[in-house]
Amino acid sequence: MTETVLNLRVKDILQRSGRGARPANPCTMVIFGATGDLTARKLIPSLYNLKRNNLLSNDFAIVGIAMDAHSDDSFRKDIAERIEAFAIEAVDKDAKEWLLSRTYYLSGQFNDPAIFQKLKTLLGEISTRHNTRDNAFFYLATSPRFFGEITRQLGAAGMIGEENRFRRLVYEKPFGNDLQSARALNTEIRSVVRERQIYRIDHYLGKETVQNMLVFRFGNGIFEPIWNRQFIDHIQITVAETVGVEKRGGYFEHAGTLRDMVPNHICQLMSLTAMEPPNSFHADAVRDEQAKILNAIQPLTGESVLHCSVRGQYGEGEIEGMGVLAYREEPDVAPDSKTETFVALKLSIDNWRWAGVPFYVRTGKRMAARHTEVAIQFKQVPFVLFRETDVSHLEPNFLVMHIAPDEGISLHFSAKMPGMEMRVGGVDMDFNYADYFGTDGSTGYEVLIYDCMIGDQTLFQRADMVEAGWYVVDPILDVWKALPPRNFPNYPAGSWGPKESEEMLERDGRHWRNHLHHPPVIHR
Ligand code: BG6
């Protein structure tokens, strides 16, 4: 957790108690791809939330750019509708009107220098009108194929220089589609902007529960001494979704789950679970430690890809009692598609803390439940004490960080069941975020946008981190490409993935945790 994030939470609390908080720096947020889904679902609601919490500067403005024809007024109308839909009841009219009164729109092609000249002029006018001090950050909520072009055009139009102002660029994922393309993109954009101006988004870092992993590990004395290979048997990371590819078949056919989830979100969860304590919460102190872990993940080589990776594609099935289509029947998906919608990997981190501790990770669409968690399984105690009792076996201790949807942390341990005989039950000690902190209706992007405005890069990917993520998955992509799957679809929608995923753990004498809520398990 960064100072910023801590501050934001504190600010939130201060704000609610009416004691004030520090708004972000004056600036204009320029959104490329302003008529797209991300702008509508995340960016505009986040700006509205930030305004309501008094975390935007009074000297703030928004410029939307996209190819669609719009006037300032028609764009404002769309934004008003977004805010009303997001807020559902009791829209804060003042916050809405305030945002609309400082929103502008430009329509054009991202490869047309003229639109960048118009933007430059508009930013100058806005700086005078709204006192934004000529500060701006450019949010590229576009298809990644425009990242290089937009960056070059901004540079050519003289909009990147930081004399007496700041200029920052925010890149959404995916950042490249393999190691080579990610490297090429880094080289391309860094020939125009400096690394300290670049904010590569991984929206998982906007999640409170993900940020809390650092506080949990380093703000408590009791976990760190046992957070290593001496006490930990293995770690399981599950990112299970019940949704299918929705309307994103076109993108997904080229990406697949491995590219879509592993080099970014799963690698983030791994690095936060495994990293050493940073020297401070400064951006590079935290990111250096994360990068060390990413670089220590051992890439699977040819032979090991076959044993330590599983891919799957969902067939038709049932989700929450409703019949759903197979992946191959989804819109924009080929009827013989070989694209994976499920991945399970056995990875290892080659350093002193983690040598010999497997990290089993899996992620998939159309799975049995929506659930993201990091589960730490501790080593078993010797059974000797229970040898002459009725207890047949003991359950391992699990510490589970529930990332979504029921945010919290639980510790699974054995307890004596009341009664004359020796009976042992597995029980859970639960901390539930909502019970302590309530639910705040945030989108997860508020903190990321706020950090862009104040210039804190802690929650953003540095070039080396992005490349390290691709370094992990590249060899798997190569082997999978050379050996196309022959058994797709190989798991029904609504299940926990292909049987090979369970078999991968069984070979090591382990199992995936598929039960989400444990009733006490009694062992006699
Ligand atoms: C995105 C992926 O980055 O993350 C999607 O492209 C995926 O395919 C999504 O559904 C999951 O994010 P969240 O926040 O819903 O867990």
Verbal overview:
The protein is α/β, with parallel strands linked by helices and 524 residues long. It is 37% helix and 19% strand. The protein contains 15 helices and 19 strands. The strands form 4 sheets. It has a 9-stranded mixed sheet, with helices on both faces. The protein has a 6-stranded parallel sheet with strand order 3-2-1-4-5-6, with helices on both faces. Strand 15 and strand 16 form a beta hairpin. Helix 9 (249-274) crosses helix 10 and helix 9 (249-274) crosses helix 14. The radius of gyration is 24 Å and the shape is globular. Mean pLDDT is 92; it is low at 1-11, 13-20 and 516-524. The structure holds 6-O-phosphono-beta-D-glucopyranose (BG6). 6-O-phosphono-beta-D-glucopyranose (BG6) binds at residues 173, 241, 260, 372, 404.
What proportion of the residues form beta strands (DSSP E)?
15-25%
Q: What is the rounded distance between the termini?
A: 43 Å
SS elements, strand count: 19
Q: Output the strand order for the largest sheet.
A: 8-12-13-7-14-15-16-17-19
Structure described in brief:
This protein is an alpha/beta fold. The protein has helices at 3-16, 37-52, 72-87, 93-100, 113-130, 147-156, 179-190, 208-218, 249-274, 283-296, 302-308, 433-437, 446-454, 463-482, 499-506; strands at 27-32, 60-66, 103-107, 136-140, 167-171, 198-200, 232-240, 309-312, 314-315, 317-319, 322-324, 342-347, 359-364, 371-378, 398-404, 408-416, 424-432, 491-492, 521-523.
Lay out the secondary structure.
Elements: H1 3-16, E1 27-32, H2 37-52, E2 60-66, H3 72-87, H4 93-100, E3 103-107, H5 113-130, E4 136-140, H6 147-156, E5 167-171, H7 179-190, E6 198-200, H8 208-218, E7 232-240, H9 249-274, H10 283-296, H11 302-308, E8 309-312, E9 314-315, E10 317-319, E11 322-324, E12 342-347, E13 359-364, E14 371-378, E15 398-404, E16 408-416, E17 424-432, H12 433-437, H13 446-454, H14 463-482, E18 491-492, H15 499-506, E19 521-523
Parallel strand pairs: 1-2, 1-4, 2-3, 4-5, 5-6, 7-13, 9-18
Antiparallel strand pairs: 7-14, 8-12, 10-11, 12-13, 14-15, 15-16, 16-17, 17-19
Helix pairs in contact: 2-3, 7-14, 9-10, 9-14, 10-14
The chain binds 6-O-phosphono-beta-D-glucopyranose.
